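Annotated sample (chain length 357).
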Amino acid sequence: MEKPKTKPGIESKMIQTDRIKIHALFSGPETGETIIFLHGNFSAAAYWQDLMLSLPDKYFCIAPDIRGYGWTEDKITDATRGLRDWSEDVLSLMETLGISKTHLVGWSLGAAPIYRMMIDQPEKILSVTLIAPVSPYGFGGTKGLNGEPTYPDFAGSGGGLVNADFVRLIQAGDRSIDDPNSPRNIINTFYYKPPFRAEDEEDLLTASLQEKIGTDRYPGDAVPSENWPFVGPGVYGPLNAGSAKYMAQDVPDLINTQPKPPVLWVYGEADQIVSDNSIFDIPVLGKLGFVPGYPGEEVMPPQPMIGQTRAVLEKYQEAGGSYEEHKIADAAHGVFIEKPEEFNQIFIGFLNKVQPK
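Output written by the structure step:
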């Protein structure tokens, strides 16, 4: 396996915890306020390097490769636990490093373990920043602002819906631009608003391609369903763990958790991955004719991902918490990479309001 490439000012370490051996990137003074950055699907800690290096030196930044990604030890994610495997890995990392409190930043699916940590260990969280986060109700299988299941078995969510060519090309380590489903093309088409390209595109692609593949890893297993699109979430892997079947039940506990860390929510207006009309949501693909047999919006409308997140955060605020929402123009899913100055103005301003206790 190719070793991770780091930028000057970033240190790469392997940390043995009591759960898993974690590869993580570090920057800043160990005596500073800690920020832990959690990446999403088909990415890795490497995506955080520029943001880590751009922050004031009062912050000690840690970006782990989440279980199943990057150079972290290869261990299975038990989807029936939701993203507890991930959240407990992070808590174990904190314990190993002697960190009692931290700011948390989660991008995309990386927000899911933060939701769980807000329920299980809120006293250890100084603040939460959600960047283009997965809905608190999970990805796929729900409708309406309150996350009502589209079907009792949550058909239309989970690992069985991933494009098989994309999975095959990841496993092959493909770096081409020839296939529309190539990992490089998916990143450049959906992580960013074209024609944006990351300066360190090659290194980020290398990091993404470390994702572990299999029916018990990514994309995970699936079960047949009587409901369109005739497949539901299985019991292994990150996409099943991030489905509504295993995440949606946690929303009431998230809203009512105590104490309530302040929340910053930032997303790009051009995001096609997490949106109210996501191109990765099976009803949207059905409406467009890419998946035959679509039963119609009366049965299975697109998941209002932005609306659901806002509705949950509004209830969180009504229950005594606080949140800020910022939408950044001309940016897509990787808003902190595409618009670093604008993002940092919001992010650092938010952090400055949070007083460590």
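Annotation: The chain has 13 helices and 14 strands.
Annotation: The chain has a mean pLDDT of 97.
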